[in-house]
Amino acid sequence: MKPKTVYTIALIAAIAGPVRVIAQAPDRIPVEKTHYSPAVEQQIKQVEEQTGFVKFAVAGLPPRTMPERMAYYKIKGLSIAVVHDYKIVWTKNYGWADELERRPVTGNTRFEPGSISKSLNALGVLRLAQEGKLDLDTDINTYLRSWTFSYDSVSAGRKITTAQLLSHTAGLNVHGFPGYFPGDSLPTLRDILNGQPPAKTRKVASIMPPGTAFQYSGGGTMITQQMIADITGQAYDAYMQKAILKPLGMNHSFFTQPPPAKLQSLLATGYDASGNTMRGKYPILLEQAAGGLWTTAADLATFMIETQLSLKGQSNKVLSAAMTKRMLSGTIDSAIGLGVFIENRDGHKYFTHSAGNQGFRGNYTGSFEGGNGVVVLINSDNDGLIQEVIRSVARVYRWEGMPQVTPVVRDTVRPSLSLLQQYTGDYLQGTTVVRLFLENKELWYKAGDQVMKVYFSASNRFFNLESESEKELYADKDGQIKGISRKTATQDLGKMEKTVPVTLSPEQMDRYAGAYIEEDGSQVAISRSGNNLTMNAGGGPMYMNFISDQAFYLAEDFGAVYKFNSTSEVEGITAQKNDQRKVLLRVK
Description:
This protein is an alpha+beta fold and 588 residues long. Helix content is 22%, strand content 29%.
C-alpha cells in the first residue's frame, strides 16, 4: 500500500526569457514526495529530467525539473499515472489544485478533462449493445423516444447509426461546448440538442451525408446521451456510475453536473493559459457524455488497463473481448475507433483521447499490446507539457514504435544583439505562422501556443529543446533576412518566408468590421481601433495581421490563416488550419 502522501515545496529558479512566459507562475510549487522502490523512483526521476527534450540538449544546461516545466507553461496543477505491464506502477502529483486556497494536487483531486468523457461514454453505449438493447448499425431514431433526430436533404436519404455517432462519422455539426458559468441559465438536454436558449450552441444537424467522412461532433455524442436515458429510463450520470464507473473501480470519478456540493473541496480549479482563475473556478458541462466527466489520473489508468486486458480476453468487467475489439477497430478511417482514436506507430497500435474543457486539459494513451500507458491531467488551458510528459514516459519505458531518441548535446554560440534584432518578425508557410521576438535580450520562437527559447549552433542556425527540427535563417543577396528553412533528420519541412505587413485603408477596415458567427454558434466581433482591426472571440481583442488586403492571421493564434469571403459585400470568413476549414458567417 502506498504511504500517506507527503509534499515538498520546489523553489523555482529564475528562467531566462520572456516575462510573459513565466510571469504568473507560482514561486513555490508543491511536489508530492513518493515512496516507491528505488528502481521506480529512478524511473520517475528519468521521466522528470527528460521532459521537455525532444532531440537536442545544450552543453552545460542542467537537467530540467517538472516544476520548471510547469512554470514555463504557467500550469498550476499536474497529475500523472504511468502504466507498465498492465499495472499502475506509479502516480505523482505536482502543483496546486487551487493556488489561492493553497490546496495542492493529491491523488484525490478531481479534474474535468473534457472530451476524454467520450471514451467512457462509448463504454456506456457499447454495454447496451452487448446486452442486446441496441444495434450499433441501426438508425438511431429506433432507440430515441423523448427526442428524435430530424433528417433533411443534407443527409441524402442515409440514416445515422450509433456507431457513426461514436466515431464522428455521422456528418453532424457542433464540434464542442463552451460550458456554463455563474450567472448563466442552465439548459435541458432537449435545449442542447435543439440549439434553443439558454443552450450556447446550435441545433445538432447534418452538414454532410452520414458515413462519408470524419467530422468531429460533440453534438453527435450528445445524441448518445439522450439514447442512454431513453433506453435505460435512468438519468445519464446514474447509469454511468452504476454500469461503468463502479464496475471499473473508478471510485473517484463521476458524471454529475453541476458537481455535488460535498465534493467541492476535492475539485481542481481551472486556469487559463496565462494562469488566471476561470470564472466560477470551472465550467459546468451539462453536456455530460461529451465533456462532463470529473476524474483522477489513477482512475483513467484503471479504465485503460481494463481495456487492454479485455482486448486480450483476460477481463470483462464491462465489455467482452469482442466488443472491446469493435471499440478499438478502425471505421471509415483506421485512426478512428468508437470513442477513441488509434495511433499506428511503426506497426504498433495505441488507443488515445485528448481533452480540453475551459481551464483543463488531459490525455491518456495506452498500447494495444504489452500493457503500457500514461495519463496526464492538468488544470490549465496550456497543454504543451502534456505531450512532453508522454514522450518522456515512452522513452523511459521503451514503448514499441515510439521514438527512442537520446538528445544530442550541442554547443551554442551567441549572435550579436543587432543580428538578433534583424531576425525578429513573423514567418509564414501555407497556413502556418511562427514568430521570432526578443525579450530580455534573448530570442524566442513562438509556434501556436508554444513559446520556445532559441539556441544558436551558428550565427544563423538554431534549434529549440522542445522541437526536433533544426532551423536556418537565410537572406537575399543584399543581406536582408528572407525566411527560415526547417529540417529534421529525415524530412525537409520547407521554407517559411518572412511576412511583409499590409496596411488597409480606413474604408477597407470599416468594410470588414462587424459581427460574425461560428458554426457552433459562438460569436466573433471585428472592430476598428484607429489604424488597426481587432477580432474578439470572447477572450479579449486580438490584433489582425494582414498579409494581403483580404487575408490575415492573429498574433495570439498562429494556428490558422483567415480570409474574408467577399464579392460586392463581405459574406464571411474562412479559417484554414492545415487541412481543416472553419467558416464564420457574417451576421446581417
